[in-house]
Each structure stands twice: as C-alpha cells, then as structure tokens.
Amino acid sequence: FDYISWLIKQYIELGIIKDLAEVKKDISKVTAKQVQALAEQIFKYEKLNLAVIGPYKDLTYFNKMIKQIKL
C-alpha cells in the first residue's frame, strides 16, 4: 500500500484529499441495507451467467443448484 500514491490518486480523480481516518469513518457509516440495495442494482438475474467446465454427462446437479438461487 503506497499511501502517497493513494493521496495523489484521490486528488486527481476527486479533487479532494481525505486522510485514512476520514475514509475509515466514511466506510463505517455504510449500512448493510445500503450494501444490499446496491447489490440488487448491480446483480440482475437476467444478466447472470454460469460456466460449468468439465466433462459432465448429467447436468441435473447444476440445474438443481440454479433453481435454488433466490434473486
């Protein structure tokens, strides 16, 4: 972890510099409900993909697992 590079990147990308304590404080304010809401926006069922690699003659096990996924 290169602290100076991190500070420079903040300034270039955001135009501000927050020290590590401020960032930790901001992160601690994030709730599980907020994380869940964002995950629901990002992970859409119709956009999910699953790759099964190997010589499987019977995909029953994988089909059963897919049906159990609750989104």
Write a structural description.
This protein is an all-alpha fold and 71 residues long. The protein has four helices and no strands. The chain has helices at residues 3-14, 20-28, 32-42, 60-68. The longest helix is centred in the first third of the chain and has 12 residues, at 3-14. The model has no long low-confidence stretch (mean pLDDT 87).
Give the topology.
Layout: H1 3-14, H2 20-28, H3 32-42, H4 60-68
Query: How many helices in DSSP terms?
Result: 4
Structural class: mainly alpha
Q: Kindly report the average pLDDT value.
A: 87
SSE order: HHHH
Distance between the termini: 36 Å
Largest sheet data: none
Helix content: 55-70%
Indicate the radius of gyration in whole angstroms: 21 Å
Tell me the β content.
under 5%
* Poorly predicted ranges: none
Question: Main traits of this protein?
Answer:
71 residues; mainly alpha; 4 helices; 0% strand
Q: What is the compact description of this entry?
A:
With 71 residues, the protein is mainly α. It is 58% helix and 0% strand.
